[in-house]
UniProtKB/TrEMBL annotation, chain A:
Domain UBC core: 4-150
Organism: Hebeloma cylindrosporum
Coiled-coil regions, chain positions: none
Protein name, UniProt field: UBC core domain-containing protein
Domain of life, per lineage: Eukaryota
Pfam families: UQ_con
Automatic annotation (TrEMBL), chain B:
CDD domains (alphabetical): Otubain_C65 (cd22749)
Name by which UniProt lists this protein: ubiquitinyl hydrolase 1
GO molecular function: cysteine-type deubiquitinase activity; ubiquitin binding
GO BP terms: protein K48-linked deubiquitination; proteolysis
Entry-linked SUPFAM superfamilies: Cysteine proteinases
Gene3D superfamilies, sorted: Peptidase C65 Otubain, subdomain 1, Peptidase C65 Otubain, subdomain 2
Organism for this UniProt entry: Hebeloma cylindrosporum
Length: 150, 255
């Protein structure tokens, strides 16, 4: 039997292909069940108007029981959005990607949540420089402290 | 986590109560009295589970399926279990949980229950030993835990009037509203269940459960909390052992 992640991701991909992504989200790349790439853009009037970011998902064989590793792409001239929960290395501090992850969420649900998160003030997290200096390669290895839900 | 300490399997083989008792011999005398009381009343074995926050759902699922295997009218028991399980999909649909999100977990649970009466490739039906092996594999085990979590969440959200006001954060004990409780405590892996979740899940599965409270509060007996949702109130209950923060399966001496 295919791994639980392959079963689920094949279904998610079929749904994206047949129904399309929500407004402001496009699928760039999904060649396998280990890494997918999306672009994400905040629609309407916001501080992020006209800015397009690349969002990377990495899945292990236990997805969706374990959360995907999600981060903004900061290579190839790309940058992460300036936001109090987004570090300059692309890592994101969001409880739904950590201790509040649930298999009820899907890749698209995560995209939509992050899209709506990008609506507050444009500043880096206060501990950005210290975090980025010491951060592991995979954001899932960081034990974030979720202090508020802005 | 200290990697030198071997981790307990997700669900362990049946062990005599004395193995649990030995862990309290230098501790609370009231716990020892309560363990002795259980043994005296026929509960002389225990099947222990890993303390990973999913132990209630895992214990309940294992004991439930094992009860079907051991049922005197096995075909009937499995048949009604499958029809109840089938109806739970409607509960999830009504609660707005997407089919895509739950169907893989559902199928794993359904296939396992079907295999009690339907011979597999080796021509054999599921026995307790194979059930144990299945539950020790994270894939099958966790799929079933998740399905039960989704079902519990759906049951609470569809009957919010019955549960609102009883929902508290498991760590802080602060009151929580139905939606954040279901999203953050019930639907997420590794979050321990309390009586609210047990009540909701027993109702959804039409199940009788006895929960033995080994909590060191009284030395002369062990209190059993009874959840009765089987259409037959006398149907054999699933018996679980609760110690503060953990659930195991209590095993009764065959009569």
């Amino acid at each position: 039997m295919a791994s639980i992640s392959a079963r689920r991701l094949a279904k998610e991909l079929r749904e994206i292909q047949s129904e399309g992504c929500p407004v402001g989200i496009t699928l760039l790349e999904a060649n396998d069940f280990s890494r997918w790439l999306f672009t994400i853009e905040v629609m309407g009037e916001s501080l992020y108007q006209g800015e397009v970011y690349d969002l990377q998902f990495r899945f292990d064989a236990q997805y969706p029981i374990s959360s995907p590793a999600v981060q903004f792409v900061v290579t190839g001239g790309k940058q992460s959005p300036i936001h109090p929960h987004v570090y300059s290395n692309g890592h994101i501090c969001a409880s739904i990607l950590g201790n509040e992850w649930s298999p009820v969420l899907s890749v698209i649900a995560v995209c939509v949540t992050l899209q709506s998160m990008l609506a507050s003030c444009k500043v880096r997290p206060t501990d950005n420089d210290r975090y980025v200096r010491n951060a592991p390669e995979n954001p899932k290895k960081t034990l974030f402290h979720y202090d508020d839900d802005t | 986590m200290n990697e030198a300490v071997p981790e307990r399997p997700l669900i362990d083989a049946v062990a005599p109560m004395s193995s649990l008792r030995s862990e309290y011999e230098n501790g609370s005398p009231i716990f020892l009295k309560q363990i002795d009381w259980l043994v005296k009343h026929g509960f002389d074995h225990v099947r222990r589970t890993r303390g990973d926050g999913d132990c209630f759902y895992r214990s309940l699922a294992f004991a439930y399926v094992e009860g079907l295997i051991n049922s005197r009218e096995r075909d009937f028991a499995v048949g009604s279990s499958l029809s109840i399980l089938e109806s739970t999909k409607e509960t999830l649909d009504k609660a707005g949980i997407e089919k895509m999100v739950y169907e893989d977990f559902y199928e794993d649970f359904e296939t396992l229950i079907q295999s009690i009466i339907k011979p597999g490739k080796d021509g054999r039906t599921l026995n307790t030993q194979q059930l144990l092996l299945a539950f020790q594999q994270p894939e099958v085990s966790n799929s079933i835990v998740i399905y039960l979590r989704f079902l519990t969440s759906a049951q609470i959200r569809l009957n919010r009037d019955s549960y609102e006001g009883f929902l508290v954060h498991p760590d802080t004990k602060d009151p929580m509203d139905v939606d954040s409780f279901c999203a953050n405590v019930v639907q997420a892996m590794g979050k321990e269940a309390d009586n609210v979740e047990i009540e909701a899940l027993c109702r959804a599965l039409q199940l009788n459960v006895d929960l033995a409270y080994l909590n060191g509060v009284r030395g002369d007996a062990v209190d059993f909390i009874k959840f009765r949702h089987d259409l037959n109130p006398n149907a054999t209950p699933v018996v679980l052992l609760y110690r503060p923060g953990h659930y195991d399966i209590l095993v009764q001496k065959p009569r």
